[in-house]
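Figure 3 (text version): C-alpha cells given as input.
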C-alpha cells in the first residue's frame, strides 16, 4: 500500500496531465455533439397597392414546402400569407421578396411585371411596428415585427392601412398560447416548422 502511495506521489504531475487530457477530450466531444440552437423568428407583413391588399401571398406558388424550396432561410408556408418565417440571421426584406420573384427597393416594388414606384402622383412607403421608415430593403427583422409596405397616391393617409397588418407571429413563436398552437405545416427541410417551446425564455 505504501509503495502505491509513493508511486502516486512521485508521478502525480503525470497523472494530473493525463486526467486533464481525458477531461478535455470528453468536453470536446460533448461540445461537438451538442445540437446548434435553432434560429426561428416570425414577422407579420402586408403589402397594399392602391388600396388593394395583396392577399395572394397565401397562393401555393409563394409557399415553401418540403418539396418546393423557395429559399433555405426565409419563407411562407401553410398557405398563410401574413407571416414570414426566418431560419437564419441577417436575412433582409430584399432577399425575401427576391425569393418570390419580386423586387423591393427604396422607391419601387416590382410585382407581376408591374412597377410601383414613387413619382409625381404616387408614393411607396414603409412602416415597421406602426412607425414610418425611409427604407426597408436592408432591414433585418426581429421576432414579432409588424411590417407594412404601401403604394398609394400622395394625398392618401397611408396610416389607415396599419390596422390591416396582422399580429399572428406570436402564435408561430408560441408566445400567445391562448390564441392557438404554431402551425404544423412542412418547412423546407421536410420537417415541421414548430418552435421548441422549451427553448423560449
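Below: residues designed for each position.
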Amino acid at each position: 500500500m505504501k509503495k502505491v502511495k509513493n508511486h502516486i506521489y512521485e508521478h502525480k504531475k503525470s497523472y494530473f496531465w493525463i486526467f486533464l487530457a481525458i477531461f478535455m477530450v470528453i468536453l470536446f466531444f460533448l461540445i461537438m455533439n451538442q445540437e446548434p440552437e435553432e434560429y426561428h423568428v416570425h414577422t407579420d407583413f402586408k403589402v397594399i397597392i392602391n388600396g388593394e391588399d395583396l392577399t395572394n401571398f397565401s397562393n401555393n406558388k409563394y409557399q415553401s414546402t418540403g418539396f418546393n424550396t423557395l429559399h433555405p432561410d426565409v419563407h411562407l408556408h401553410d398557405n398563410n400569407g401574413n407571416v414570414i418565417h426566418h431560419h437564419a440571421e441577417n436575412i433582409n426584406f430584399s432577399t425575401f421578396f427576391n425569393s418570390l420573384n419580386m423586387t423591393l427597393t427604396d422607391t419601387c416594388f416590382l410585382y407581376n411585371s408591374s412597377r410601383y414606384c414613387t413619382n409625381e402622383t404616387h408614393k411607396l412607403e414603409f412602416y415597421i411596428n406602426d412607425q414610418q421608415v425611409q427604407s426597408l430593403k436592408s432591414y433585418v427583422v426581429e421576432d414579432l415585427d409588424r411590417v407594412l409596405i404601401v403604394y398609394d397616391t400622395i394625398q392618401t393617409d397611408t396610416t389607415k392601412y396599419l390596422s390591416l397588418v396582422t399580429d399572428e407571429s406570436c402564435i408561430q413563436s408560441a408566445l400567445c398560447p391562448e390564441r392557438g398552437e404554431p402551425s404544423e405545416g412542412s418547412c423546407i427541410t421536410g420537417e415541421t416548422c414548430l418552435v421548441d417551446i422549451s427553448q423560449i425564455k
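The CA atoms of residues 63 and 77 lie 5 Å apart.
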